[in-house]
Amino acid sequence: LWERVRPRALRREAAQLRALKFPMTTMNRLMKLNPSMNIRSAEAAEVINYATVLITQALVRSALRERASTRAIVQVSDVRQACVNAQELQFLAPLDSTLDASALAIRADANASSNLETNEAAAQ
């Protein structure tokens, strides 16, 4: 009954969104990075997944619109510029400071372990 009440364009957009979900294992791994998110329900994970898809789509569309070229490769500089210029994406600007300390620490640990593996491989 509710499906018939909603406009056809909205139903089509909802179907497209359901098809574009990120893998739940990846989303759960990302959600575990936030120390304040101890308990999460399946519904909350699904909503976060859909929100991530929508924000990624908006970011890429804005970056492509900002560049206005025929090349379809979006670079980090394009994303930074889109975050500055689009009002709805300004909460991401500056892009470097959107990562919290835990994400930066995880990145530093990953870089240190990869450097250690590279040095061990070079020593052999």
TrEMBL record:
Pfam name, any one: CBFD_NFYB_HMF
This entry's Gene Ontology molecular function terms read: protein heterodimerization activity
Domain Transcription factor CBF/NF-Y/archaeal histone per the UniProt entry, residue ranges: 21-82
Put simply, this protein is called Transcription factor CBF/NF-Y/archaeal histone domain-containing protein
